[in-house]
From TrEMBL:
GHMP kinase N-terminal domain sequence ranges: 73-147
Keyword presence, Kinase: yes
Organism: Deinococcus indicus
The protein's annotated pathway: Isoprenoid biosynthesis; isopentenyl diphosphate biosynthesis via DXP pathway; isopentenyl diphosphate from 1-deoxy-D-xylulose 5-phosphate: step 3/6
Protein name: 4-diphosphocytidyl-2-C-methyl-D-erythritol kinase
Amino acid sequence: MSHAPADPAPHVTYFAPAKVNLGLSVRDLRADGYHELHSLMVPLNVGDDLDIAPAGTLSLRVQGADLPADEGNLVFRAARAYLDAAGVDGGAAITLHKRLPLASGLGGGSSDAATTLMALARLYPARVDLPGLALTLGADVPFFLLGRAAVASGVGEILAPLPVPPVSLVLVNPGVEVSARDAYAWLDAEEAFTPALDVEAILAALTNGRPVPYLNALQGPVAARHAPIREALGALEAAGLHSPLMSGSGSTCLGLARDDAHAHDAAQTLARQFPHWWVQATRTL
């Protein structure tokens, strides 16, 4: 069945936000090979952009990174999955403006995929189970459909939205790409599983600006194998930021600031000290 585009504009630009994990517990390795997770995930005001326009066929261009523009790209797979599920005869011309570092623990690819699904659902409305489709693309993709902070459990697909106080922070990426597959394999080898997060204690500390009692179960195994990540965590603390933590499977690390001005000043200091790092002051959405 063919659908006419709902929006005749040449293209629409969509923002695909990054996320950080304000705590990530890996509780166990499940019988199905996936991991039982417990994490507090929050979207940020930094991310990628996608230009999407109706077209006769599906095409993808990538600017800002050396990434495939076919089935090897999660954006292309998300678009193909939606168009097929919706029974759309046409396609879309998509340009991905990649601004986040690759394989960095910020969920960039998952956010790009979720944003693609939402954009095409606006362009070609149809009765499609977006959360179900999102989960086939990756465990983090449903979170980005939600668009707000949530506690994630299961393999990441069970989402419980909750209010999180505004948080200013600085992200640093020392230029190391970490495979999530490797990070979890290292954790499994050590059987370094962790208990559930104390979400109430984390929220109380965020509200009061105190050191945050969170953990990232993947941080130890990953940082042990990547000295730049250890250096990044130390640099954040030396810059006057508190509660340094690796986000997701790395290699991006975060440090919390008192406010936006503090985050901006600390980011400038870090960018001068480490000119080859990706450094970004940001805040939660």
